[in-house]
Amino acid sequence: MKLCFASNNAHKLEEVRALLGAAFELLTLADIGCLTDIPEPFETIHENSTEKARFVWEKFGIDCFADDSGLEVRALDGAPGVYSARYAGPQRDSNDNIDLLLKNLSGFTDHHARFITVITLVIKGAYHQFEGEVNGKIIFEKRGSHGFGYDPVFIPDGYDKTFAEMNIEEKSKLSHRAIALGKLNAFLKRM
Ligand code: IMP
Questions:
Q1: Quick check: CB of 49 below 6 Å from ligand 1?
Q2: Catalytic residue positions?
Q3: pLDDT tens digit string along 108-123?
Q4: Is the pTM here over 0.85, yes or no?
Q5: Which pLDDT value is given to residue 121?
C-alpha cells in the first residue's frame, strides 16, 4: 500500500520509517513531486495537522498522513506550542528556539513540559486523527546530538537522558510521535 508522509523533515521521516516498518511503501513529498512548503496557517496543532494532509490529498489525490507537533511548557502557559518551530523567529533555528525557551523559563521552578503530536490520515478521502503525548521536563543545558528541535533539553519522565542522548530506537519506543504512529499503524492494519 502506498502512503505519502506529508513532511520534509528528514528526522521525522527516519522515525516514521523505523516505526511503520516495511508494511507500507512510504512516499515522501519529493517522491510525489510536492516541492512547495505546505502552509501551517492555524493556531492549533490539530488544525495545522489537518491542513497539511488536506493539502496533499486535494492537490495530489494520494492517500497520505501528516503530523503536526509541538512542545508545551506548563509554566509558560503552553508555549511554544503551535509556534514551536518558529518560536525565536522565521529562521526556524532549533538553537535559537532552545535559547529563547531557556531564557523565558529561567526564574520558574516548574520545568514540566510535554511533546504532543497529532497525525491526520486521509485515506480514500476520509479523515482520521491519532494523538500522542509524552511528559517530561526541560533542563538548562543542551545534552546529546541525536534527534532535532528541542530534543537536547527535554528529559522524558522516568528517564535521566534527554531525547537527544537517545538513539532513534530508544526515542521511538516512547516519543509522542511513536505513540500516535502506533495508533495509526493499528488502524491501518485493521483496514
Ligand atoms: P512540526 O510543525 O510538526 O514540524 O513541529 C514543530 C516543532 O516542534 C519542530 O520544529 C520542533 O521544534 C518541535 N518538535 C516536534 N517534535 C519534536 C521532537 O520529537 N523533538 C524535538 N522537537 C520536536
A1: no
A2: 68
A3: 999 999 999 999 999 9
A4: yes
A5: 98
